[in-house]
Amino acid sequence: MSEPPNHTITAVPGITVGHFTDRVACTGCTVVLAPPGGAVAACHVAGGAPGTRETDALQPGNLVERAHAVLLTGGSAFGLDAAAGVMRWLEERGEGFPTTAGPVPIVAAAVLFDLAVGRADVRPGAAQGYAAARLADAGPVAEGSVGAGTGATVAKAGGMARALKGGVGSAATRLVDGAHVGVLVAVNAFGDVVDPADGMLIAGPRTDDGGMTCTSDLIARGELSGQIRGLTNTTLVVVATDALLDRPQALRVAHMAHAGIARALRPSHSPGDGDTVFVLASGGGPAVDAAGVIAAGSVAADLTAAAIDRGVRLAHGLGGLPSAAEWRSGR
Fold first, then answer.
1. CATH for 127
2. CA atoms of 111 and 105, how far apart (whole Å)
3. Residue 3: inside a domain, yes or no?
4. Residue 264 is part of which domain span?
């Protein structure tokens, strides 16, 4: 494998990404656009608190084979309204599933809960989704506290008063067969963030002495009870590739990519995390057999873990919550 000059998901040919960011209300959304004509799409939800749109349509055996965009958004379930704006932007360009009444854009979406940061009464809607789609381009993706990661938080086992900022991260590589694989993640987790390479703590609940603890220590001391009531979270992932995957192969890659969440977040897939992975396979690259699916899925998991790391390391404080880097440096 060789690292492309652009290390983000837009290194995959034809994939573009746009953010809408509201730093005052501490919310936003991120749109990943497939190339014209859409991409073979799949989705796997492994968390216990998902908020999604069009995910059933992306399962094998259903009529719709391709999606035209994936929306990741703050605002909890309210944020699903932003998908209407992405649909309108695509419709204006003639993109969509063909019907006798004209094309119907397929926009899959998933939300994260950021209402406890900034203003709970300001959520992404159709105008914000449209703006994110309009701003989408193929340049390196902005990371950190932007788009869907603007109000994202992590390390909430000690409650929001001890949490740290999450954010958007992205990573990409190219396989030896020439296929590109890229990942974009919005990190908004209940759990701690650890370095996927060595397991060292990157972000854990803040302590009164200016340090961090970890969720496993709180569990060992029996200090979770009552601390986490009402907290909802969710880490959202989009995997994109130009490998020629069919729907079942794309779904298997989505399943495998969840391993990257588990490597970087402890715990992951909790009752309060709606952890969701989308896969967009645009084609144009090599066809793959079972070995190719193993390669794509393994790399997708590695990139997911790396993107989680980047999203948290590149975040900056908002809404009264510091980032992990700011907390460690005492700023």
1. 3.60.70.12
2. 19
3. no
4. 9-329
- What tokens appear for 149 in the block? 């990661």
CA distances (Å), origin 276, targets 231, 250, 258, 313:
18, 14, 8, 21
Tens of pLDDT, residue by residue over 263-306, are 999 999 999 899 999 999 998 888 889 999 999 999 999 999 99
pTM: 0.95
Strands 236-241 and 276-281: parallel
Residue 281 lies in a domain: yes
Q: How many domains does the chain have?
A: 1
**What percentage of the chain exceeds 90 in pLDDT?**
85
Residue 280 lies in a domain: yes
In a domain, 117, yes or no: yes
User: What are the residues facing 40 on neighbouring strands?
Assistant: 66, 281
What CA–CA distances, in Å, run from 278 to 69, 150, 162, 223? Answer: 10, 20, 30, 34
Specify whether the CB–CB gap between 114 and 151 falls below 8 A. yes
Q: Nearest-5° angle of CA 218, CA 222, CA 223?
A: 55
Closest CA to 247 of 62, 9, 54, 31: 62
